[in-house]
């Protein structure tokens, strides 16, 4: 809504009462075309620090937050509409109904779009982009996104796709052997595993800034891909021209350039979404067949492609791996090993409690602090690890997961078994 207001001559300023999270809004115009009969009061999900202070000519306010901020506007003659909250997320219970009303009743759009259409269109696009004699590399991380992207491209060009799984030393517990087993036995994808952990960890030594970590990891990934492409060139007599990545739409948004670029008003939440900062002189051209989809849509697409359901339900894992879940130097002490063990215990406890599929993402974070405790008859001074679990629908907004703390005994028992082992 802010961009709409500014473009048409209104004014937006930093809000005194910034609104984030769950908020009540009141529909103030009973005859609003935007809300139809779905007016009155409703709970929505806010995420903004600015507010509209002057409307463009011809607009009227049709909804306000309980704090008084403008939440929705419309121009009846021009049929322009703007919202200052997220109607598309599950945390806005009536939001999807508002969108349906807008699309089908106000705009007159027909509901004839299917996920199969996306598959057919992307396969057609890839075939037209990649020549009949050209080869493609796919960066497989073991996650849902890259796996679905690889399967889709494999459907389009067959064995001219060459997948590579890089062990960068920042993976979860036993991730390499588990993922490679799935690739070989269930997905039947041509995958080469490269262990580059020593190189990655060497470059990350002493680095604490998370954004710098991303850039270093991105640079090293591309170096591995370039080396892999050179090896393939010797083997098949032709250098691959393309690199496939499982970029999603939320990744694109989070990787927006900062203010002043002319493209967006959003801040860059993180540098390039998948592996970190991609170098400007990268020799490989990108193929990102999922970049306009959300995670739930990717899972539906993967189901059409017969990707195993157990794989599609995996929780998201960051491209830079555990580097961004260790707050500080990843090579200091035994931070990575501690984090792997804690993460494995946490995830297994959630699975044992039957909660894994209800949670969008659960993970552990290694904190840069220590605390005092008692073990046996002695005082200890050791590391602190935080456990996080969130709910979401598409990764654009999230809320904490209110699961029962009854699962804690299971985690304690698992932790004891690890200590005994």
TrEMBL record:
Coiled coil: none annotated. Pathway: Purine metabolism; GMP biosynthesis; GMP from XMP (L-Gln route): step 1/1. It is an enzyme of class 6 (ligase). Residues 113-314 form the GMPS ATP-PPase domain. Signal peptide: none annotated. Its EC number is 6.3.5.2. NCBIfam families: guaA_Cterm (TIGR00884), PRK00074.1 (NF000848). This is GMP synthase (glutamine-hydrolyzing). GO terms for cellular component: cytosol. ATP binds at residues 141-147. InterPro entries: Class_I_gatase-like (IPR029062), GATASE (IPR017926), GMP_synth_C (IPR001674), GMPS_ATP_PPase_dom (IPR025777), Rossmann-like_a/b/a_fold (IPR014729). Keywords: ATP-binding, Glutamine amidotransferase, GMP biosynthesis, Ligase, Nucleotide-binding, Purine biosynthesis. PROSITE patterns: GATASE_TYPE_1, GMPS_ATP_PPASE. It comes from the Eukaryota. GO terms for molecular function: ATP binding; GMP synthase activity. PANTHER family: GMP SYNTHASE (GLUTAMINE-HYDROLYZING), GMP SYNTHASE-RELATED.
């Amino acid at each position: 809504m802010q961009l709409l207001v500014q473009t048409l001559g209104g004014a937006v300023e930093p809000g005194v009462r910034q609104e984030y999270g769950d908020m009540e809004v009141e529909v103030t115009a009973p005859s609003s075309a935007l809300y139809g009969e779905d007016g009155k009061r409703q709970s929505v999900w806010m995420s903004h620090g600015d507010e509209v202070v002057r409307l463009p000519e011809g607009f009227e306010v049709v909804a306000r937050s309980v704090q008084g901020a403008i939440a929705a506007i419309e121009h009846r003659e021009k049929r322009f509409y703007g919202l200052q909250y997220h109607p598309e997320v599950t945390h806005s219970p009536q939001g999807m109904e508002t969108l349906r009303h807008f699309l089908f009743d106000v705009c007159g759009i027909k509901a004839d779009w299917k996920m199969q259409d996306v598959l057919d269109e992307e396969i057609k696009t890839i075939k037209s982009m990649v020549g009949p004699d050209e080869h493609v590399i796919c960066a497989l991380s073991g996650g849902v996104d890259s796996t679905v992207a690889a399967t889709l491209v494999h459907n389009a060009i067959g064995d001219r796709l060459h997948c590579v799984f890089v062990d960068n030393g920042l993976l979860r517990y036993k991730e390499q052997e588990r993922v490679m087993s799935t690739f070989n036995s269930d997905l039947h994808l041509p995958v080469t595993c490269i262990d580059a952990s020593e190189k990655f960890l060497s470059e990350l030594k002493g680095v604490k800034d998370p954004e710098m970590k991303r850039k270093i990891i991105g640079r090293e990934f591309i170096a591995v891909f370039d080396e892999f492409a050179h090896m393939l060139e010797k083997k098949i007599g032709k250098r691959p021209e393309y690199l496939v990545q499982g970029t999603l739409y939320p990744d694109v948004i989070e990787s927006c350039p900062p203010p002043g670029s002319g493209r967006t008003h959003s801040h860059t939440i993180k540098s390039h979404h998948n592996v970190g900062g991609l170098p400007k002189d990268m020799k490989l051209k990108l193929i990102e067949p999922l970049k306009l989809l959300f995670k739930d849509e990717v899972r539906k697409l993967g189901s059409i492609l017969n990707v195993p359901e157990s794989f599609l339900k995996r929780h998201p894992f960051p491209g830079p791996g555990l580097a961004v879940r260790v707050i500080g130097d990843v090579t200091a002490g035994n931070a990575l090993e501690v984090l792997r063990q804690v993460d494995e215990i946490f995830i297994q406890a959630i699975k044992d409690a039957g909660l894994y599929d209800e949670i969008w993402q659960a993970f552990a974070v290694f904190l840069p602090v220590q605390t005092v405790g008692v073990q046996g008859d002695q005082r200890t001074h050791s590391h602190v690890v935080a456990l996080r679990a969130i709910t979401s629908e598409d990764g654009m907004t999230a809320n904490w997961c209110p699961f029962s703390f009854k699962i804690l005994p299971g985690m304690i028992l698992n932790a004891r078994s690890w200590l005994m082992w």
